[in-house]
UniProtKB/TrEMBL annotation, chain A:
NCBIfam families documented for this protein: ccoS
Transmembrane regions listed in the UniProt entry: 6-26
Species classification: Bacteria, Pseudomonadati, Pseudomonadota, Alphaproteobacteria, Hyphomicrobiales
Protein name: Cbb3-type cytochrome oxidase maturation protein
PANTHER family, A to Z: FIXS PROTEIN
Key words of the record: Membrane, Transmembrane, Transmembrane helix
């Protein structure tokens, strides 16, 4: 059993990363308009994040 | 400044057009610069309710010249527009109105980010993280880990629990410390003591290889309580932003004419006595003062409850907050904004509030009884086990178990959960609750005091003899009236809306403040207004008439319209055995007429604001708990003085802020609805408190006898919390009618603007 103790710091580390990401998104204002976000996910246009790759694929 | 320019005005557009948008200077004052010539203007758009609305608003505003972007916040129903110089900010509001979303300027101050919520959510996230990880460790321990592993897991739990309690527990510790410093107790005192002792004892046991540690109980307790507290805060904040988003009635500033003839728009705070101000038709009077030149009609309904506009000319005094209806005037400021009528109301309100006996929340009253019992029980357990020869370590462990198992987790959730659910249900039917205490206070009410104008009535005049007037004449009248924002004109336009297809277009329409409107069509001169002015030979005819070349065409009669549901609401309240009183600032004969129509026996008119507070004080001295329902500036002190208070969304700004409840719908059914739901909520709260107490009464003997292990404590604590929360959620179901109404009304709203 003690062979698996390395999993404890691993899981705690992952948990900490999750917590940090949540706090970061909170600070960034992603929770300011939850109702709006729920609607935007349906109505927003899909804008490619990386336009250059878009054009590259067209060339290829 | 007359509307002669636009001779043809579509009838349908008239009501919207009659409401003047804010001036460019006022918009600039309410906007903020975000660098590089870029401005941000925040507008409140109450009608936004879905994704399609958001798209429509964002794309329409985005197409305007100079607008960089518009972003809607659906939760707060606001849109912030970023624009640069060539853009015309005055176009935003009319543009939105033209696509069916009435909007108004939002206060930049209302846009502050909610720091308390952010702090609560951060604390909640940390507590959730801590509770989850410690629980995982605890499950391993409960499953029967060997001594070495157990100690290691306890140690890791302690390492997680210490920062978690330090960070997330601060909210409870600081509140408990505050209460203790003022020699009071609240719910947070037993919570804090329980958490700290449990943590200290567990830490000692961990370091000495003890078998039991309560880190999981301590941290999950914090987590559960923070969930309740965050929900409570979200609900109240939602109501508050909804109220803040309503149109503002006070002027933000005024056009000042300097002695050298220069004009400047100054914010309200910088206006000093003696300055000369220009007030256009459709604007609110910014400060108390007297008219220097110009004639107009002034609508005082929001200020003193008079339903008919007052005619003013040079030399007349005007109060801050009244609405200039018909003509532009120049006035001299007599007092600064802080000394104006409005400020006097604020002073009266503060005096009234300090006189109001401080209400103690139900949860705090329960805590003040409960905490000593729990602490005594834990102490007696400790002493008992010491005497029975248990040794101080075992005795202390069992005492801690007693503290943990009786820690008022369920008790602390019992009240806020019900109030959160109640506030949500009320929100669905368009009633905003400002704080949970109001829901408790309103259940004690035995007297309801109503204001007249704007509360029992809508404060807008309607044409009462519309059916007697031939449609052709009504069309002429409506065509003339579309050019004015006088209440009589608007009533005629509204009456004509259903019956007249096409209104004639006049060559010229001119408004004569205090007298009426004059319109020319070909060789005919139409006059609509006072009989003595409009008719060549009035001969005993009074009131408002339409004349053609001095001959009588039609007469008009107006009355203030009752708020829908007013009669039923008053009747329902009477049937419930509540005493109904009508207090008004309007003329006594008007008040008497309305009281008779509604079957209210107790009434008084011609009251100044101080009188209303005095009446409430008399009622309070008789031992009456008063619910005040009012809307005017003159009601604000009474709203603050009453045991509980309600205001319609059309109320003056300070009245809305002073009231505990604000209802957004027109109907007055809101008053009995709030009473009914608060009573149901009160019953559920008491049930919840009883459930929590029964649970404690059962669990306590086991804890005292030393049978409670951390596993039992964890299960008991969570299950009792879940029971209490589930019971609170029943509130909507027992009150099925109210919910259905909410759904219907929401459907109606969306139909209305689809």
């Amino acid at each position: 059993m003690s062979d698996f103790f390395y999993l404890i710091p691993l899981s705690l580390g992952l948990g900490c990363i999750g917590l940090a990401v949540f706090l970061w998104s909170l600070r960034g204002g992603q929770y300011e308009d939850l109702d709006g976000a729920a609607e935007r996910v349906i109505t927003d246009e899909d804008v490619p994040i990386l336009p250059q790759r878009h054009s590259a694929s067209r060339q290829g | 400044m007359s509307c002669c320019g636009q001779a043809s005005l579509a009838l349908a557009a008239a009501p919207a057009g009659a409401e003047a948008g804010p001036s460019r200077e006022e918009i600039l004052l309410a906007s903020h610069r975000i660098g590089e010539g870029l401005w941000q203007t925040d507008l409140s758009v109450p009608a936004v309710h879905c994704g399609a609305c958001m798209r429509a608003i964002e794309s329409t505003l985005g197409r305007l010249e100079g607008v960089e972007g518009a972003r809607v916040n659906l939760s707060t129903r606001r849109v912030s527009v970023r624009w640069r110089e060539p853009a015309n900010p005055c176009a935003f509001i009319p543009t939105l109105a033209s696509i069916g979303y009435p909007a108004h300027l939002d206060d930049p101050a209302a846009d502050e980010r909610d720091e308390t919520l952010a702090r609560l959510v951060r604390a909640l996230a940390v507590a959730g993280f801590g509770a989850m990880n410690i629980m995982l460790m605890s499950v391993a321990v409960w499953a029967g880990a060997e001594a070495g592993t157990r100690d290691l897991f306890h140690l890791i739990s302690a390492a997680i629990a210490l920062p978690t309690i330090g960070y997330s527990g601060r909210i409870f510790f600081s509140s408990a410390w505050n209460a203790l410093r003022h020699r009071r107790t609240n719910m947070d005192v037993p919570i804090s003591i329980g958490i700290l002792i449990a943590f200290g004892m567990s830490l000692y046991d961990t370091l000495n290889s003890g078998a039991h540690a309560y880190f999981d109980a301590a941290v999950s307790l914090i987590f559960f309580l923070l969930v309740g507290r965050t929900l409570d805060h979200v609900m109240r904040e939602r109501a508050r932003t909804a109220v803040k988003g309503l149109a503002r009635f006070a002027a933000r500033g005024a056009h000042v004419v300097h002695p050298d003839g220069r004009q400047e728009y100054l914010p309200l705070a910088e206006i000093e006595p003696g300055m000369t101000l220009m007030v256009a038709a459709g604007e609110r009077i910014p400060v108390d003062g007297e008219i220097l030149s110009g004639r107009s009609d002034i609508d005082c309904s929001l200020v003193n409850g008079e339903s008919l506009p007052r005619e003013v000319g040079p030399g007349a005094t005007v109060e801050a907050g009244t609405l200039n209806l018909t003509g532009p005037v120049t006035m001299r400021a007599r007092a600064a904004a802080k000394d104006s009528f409005l400020a006097e109301m604020v002073r009266l309100m503060e005096a009234a509030e300090s006189g109001r006996s401080r209400y103690r929340r139900l949860a705090d009253r329960a805590a003040s009884l409960y905490a000593p019992v729990v602490h005594t029980a834990a102490f007696v357990t400790f002493v008992g086990w010491m005497l029975a020869g248990g040794g101080w370590h075992e005795s202390l462990s069992i005492a801690v178990a007693v503290l943990i198992i009786t820690c008022p987790c369920a008790l602390a959730l019992a009240v806020p959960m019900v109030q959160v659910v109640a506030a949500r249900r009320l929100f669905e039917v368009g009633i905003m609750v400002k704080d949970g205490g109001a829901l408790e206070r309103i259940t004690e009410v035995d007297t309801v005091v109503f204001d007249k104008t704007g509360t029992l009535t809508l404060g807008t005049l309607v044409l009462t003899n519309g059916d007697d007037i031939p449609p052709a004449d009504l069309a002429v009248a409506a065509g003339i009236c579309a050019h004015s924002r006088h209440p009589h004109s608007r009533a005629i336009v509204a009456a004509a809306q259903d019956r007249v297809r096409l209104a004639p277009v006049f060559d010229e329409v001119r408004e004569h403040p205090g007298l009426g409107l004059e319109a020319k069509l070909g060789g005919d001169v139409y006059r609509l207004g006072r009989a003595a002015w409009a008719l060549r030979d009035a001969g005993g005819i009074t009131g408002t008439v339409l004349s053609c070349n001095g001959r009588l065409v039609a007469r008009f009669a107006f009355a203030d319209r009752l708020r829908p549901g007013a009669r039923q609401a008053v009747q329902t309240l009477k049937d419930e055995g509540l005493r109904i009183v009508l207090l008004s600032g309007d003329r006594s004969d008007e008040v008497q007429r309305l009281a008779g129509a509604l079957g209210i026996d107790e009434y008084a008119g011609d009251l100044v604001p101080g009188d209303k507070v005095a009446r409430l004080a008399t009622l309070a001295a008789e031992g009456r708990k008063v619910l005040m329902v009012g809307d005017g500036l003159n009601d604000a002190p009474a709203l603050a003085a009453a045991h509980a208070s309600m205001a319609p969304s059309t109320a003056a700004d300070i009245g809305r802020n002073a009231a505990d409840f604000v209802f957004l719908r027109e109907g007055l059914e809101a008053v009995p609805a709030v009473l009914r739901l608060s009573r149901a909520a009160h019953a559920l709260t008491r049930q919840n408190l009883a459930l929590a107490l029964i649970y404690n009464a059962i669990a306590m003997p086991f804890a005292v006898l030393g049978y409670v292990t951390p596993l039992v404590a964890a299960i008991a604590m969570s299950s009792s919390s879940i029971i209490v929360v589930a019971n609170a959620l029943r509130l909507g179901r027992t009150e099925g009618g109210a919910r259905e109404q909410g759904g219907l009304a929401a459907a109606r709203l969306s139909e209305a603007h689809a």
